[in-house]
């Protein structure tokens, strides 16, 4: 395990929670192990581990990109992560207003629908 992988796992657990990471690790197979290693080292151990942005800021950027690109499954995951990143429900709605203007109202509508469900379930931002 590289230092970047170890840091990536630390940050991944801090942002997504132990339960999610434990499930992902348990589901890992020989087929996707190299992919899992790559995202742990690059997304989590490099990008998310950087101190150039706060976790709240990085969370908001991630939500905007996922919503704008229509990646709904990952969007739900990162909406749940707002409970640990410091992004509030107001932050999330501000992000989705930007998505509406720059990526389209249908993308924002879908993102808001998902956020309402996640928040109603008591997950994500307070």
TrEMBL record:
Q: What is its EC number?
A: 4.1.1.44
InterPro entries reported in the protein's UniProt record: 4CMD/NDH-1_regulator, AhpD-like, CMD-like, Decarb_PcaC
> In this protein, which residues make up the domain named Carboxymuconolactone decarboxylase-like?
34-116
Q: Name one Pfam family in it.
A: CMD
Annotated Gene3D superfamilies? AhpD-like (1.20.1290.10)
Highest taxon of the lineage? Bacteria
* This protein's UniProt keywords: Lyase
Alphabetized GO MF terms: 4-carboxymuconolactone decarboxylase activity; peroxiredoxin activity
What start-end ranges are recorded for coiled-coil regions in this protein? none
Name the chain's protein.
Answer: 4-carboxymuconolactone decarboxylase
Annotated gene: pcaC
């Amino acid at each position: 395990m590289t230092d970047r992988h170890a840091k990536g796992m630390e940050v991944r657990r801090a942002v997504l929670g132990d339960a999610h990471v434990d499930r992902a690790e348990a589901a890992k197979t020989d087929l996707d192990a190299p992919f899992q290693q790559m995202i742990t080292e690059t997304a989590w151990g490099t990008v998310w581990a950087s101190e150039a942005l706060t976790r709240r800021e990085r969370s908001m950027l991630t939500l905007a990109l996922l919503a704008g690109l229509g990646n709904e499954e990952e969007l739900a995951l990162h909406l749940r992560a707002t409970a640990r990143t410091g992004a509030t429900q107001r932050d999330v709605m501000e992000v989705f207003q930007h998505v509406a203007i720059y990526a389209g109202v249908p993308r924002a509508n879908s993102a808001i629908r998902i956020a309402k469900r996640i928040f109603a379930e008591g997950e994500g931002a307070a």
